[in-house]
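Let us practice reading a record.
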Amino acid sequence: MLSLNTPPFDIERTNPAILDPIRLFREAADAQDFSSIRSLYRDVVNNLTTVMRSMSRLPNDVRNASSYESAANGVWLYRLLFMSHVELLDDKEFEPVCRRQYIQQALQSLDTFMSSLKGLMQVAEREMRQLKPLPDLPEKCEEDAEPETAESNTDRPHEASRTSLLSGDTRQSNEGSSTDRTCVEEAADELGALVEPQAIGRSKRGLTAILKPLSVSLRRKISQPFLKADNAAPVEKLTTRTGHARATANIRNSIALFSELFDGKLEGSLPHPDDSTELFFDRNGVLQLASLKGLVRYLTSAASDDDLELPDVFFLCFRYFSTPALVLEAFIERYREDLSDCASPDQASIQTMYVKMRVARLLNQWVDLHWRHSEDQEVFSPLLQFAFSDLSRDLPRKVSSKLIETLHTAACSKEYKGRRIEKTVQLIQGSSPAEELRSPWEPRDKKAMAKGEFANINLSNFASPHGMELLTHQLTALLWEKYQDFQPEDAARFWVEEATGKSTCDASTDAGTKVTNYASFEKALHLWALDIIVSAQSMEDRIQKVQFLLEWAQQCHIIRNYAGSWALFSACDRQSLVGSLLNIDARHEEILVSLRLFFSHTNRMKAYKDAIQSGHGPTLPTLVLFVGDIKRQCGNEECVDHPNAPGHMLINLRRYRPLTRAIRDMERCHAPYYIQRVDYVCQWMEEVVCSYLNCSEAEWEDILYEKSRRLRKMINRKRSFYVQ
């Protein structure tokens, strides 16, 4: 918990040594004092690196955000650019051919480094505001709220999630499932971030002092974003929220000081005469329509820094509206663009260097994260030639060699598809290590199952806590094997082709089979659960089976197997087939209601989506949400007229932003489960579930309705008999 005396994050007041060397370095550069530059550059690099490393004290949820990762990678790249210029000064015999030109390049690279560091801090401040702890419930709501101990929420989060009816994710849906409430909370966050913190005593321990305790307290609160507010003492709650707001405000205040450290020539972008017809922004300043050249120009300018998802949108979706050859041509044209007519020589020089660095960085991002061998191979040779000629000539060797090394990695890998999923999984595993799931319990009919004799095996054989655990783990293992078999980007393309009827490449056809296999197994599991319920011989038997399936769905939910949880729960919630569930006990009724809220379609399954985006360990998604979101966006035109310039057809980014978000969410679900597989249980379960794929869904619906009617007729006969 934060102390009320926690020093704020303020570069100027808590670590003044950061500012002075930079100011002195700039003064020495202006005076062309080469010896002072030689003696100061190490202090400049060390101080700026200290700031970057101190930001590792930020909460995991901030540092694991894709926007933060992208900004941080940019900072390290620009640091490399600066180091490439000034590390030559280590050689005391080094004397540049032209001192003035060398010093100017060093200052330009320093400004780029500082600009990117400022951008990183802006991203951190934005993410901190989004993760701001929610205020207490109003008094009237607290009276009705169920009491809960603080220890159950913080000290033992894993046990708390297992002993509650559902994991913490479901509690979020119970408390804030309406979109209206969400909007109110987001507005409150915006207002709270602008409140000035109270004046407190200053300390000089720097960024670590505020972020280390902050990371501890926020990890507890943010890692369980859906838990109800605990009953901790009011002072402790106030301290947490005050410390969070104070850290956020002081990061923002420190950002304002950066204008003192560099001249800000990179803060704005040089306007282009075609921007008025090739770019269109909505009222919030978000780019919605663009030509290919305008989009590349915007991506390589500082104006796009606030649009954190745009690089992903571009590289994940450009193959829908362009080709790799045209995209590479646009980047090369932007790289070679002459900016001397748009600004003064000094500013044009800085902007040109900045654009070249952005192009190099984006090309490296394309190959490293988004490369598709089957489609992008045609531009491999031209891209490699461009790296060896232009990049090697214009940029420091350490910078240009990064793209060359990445291209070498792609060339050495068979069917290289980028490292996007790999990096996403590494982030999730680093913040939420997965535990191994094992079940030592064995069913009584193990010998028969091991021989493949499944005829007499029923779910009732697993009607115990350990049996339920075994079922849950093996179902999760089966689903995980099917889910990891395809890449989210290929799945999205398959659904787009289904919705539009347009085929783009052979890869999506192969992915379509694998996606269909996963979705079909999920649907067959749902039909199996329905068949178990409607095959009951009495209403009491039906209620028992519903309660068993609800407990199974709950256990799947706890380990974030949302595919299994959805399939089992939705079977129990099919009232047209199952009938009224008024006779289930209170505990199972609460499980049913909690799952119903979690998977609610009234707010497009917001709680479910939030749980996936939290990235707290291995997750298995149900594809219902993703298929709907992607196919819904296919109704938007690929290209539309510029509203203010008819005749200029532009790429419709409104179509591709939701598609990108769906792909990123599916990628978060590729963190692996570690489950001790029990082969005979998996074989039995797969055989039983897959038997429901022998008939069409419509045929099974007829069969299940007929079974359900039989029980109703039987109950009605008994009632009429007793009436007589």
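A brief commentary: Confidence is low (pLDDT under 50) at residues 1-12, 134-164, 167-240.
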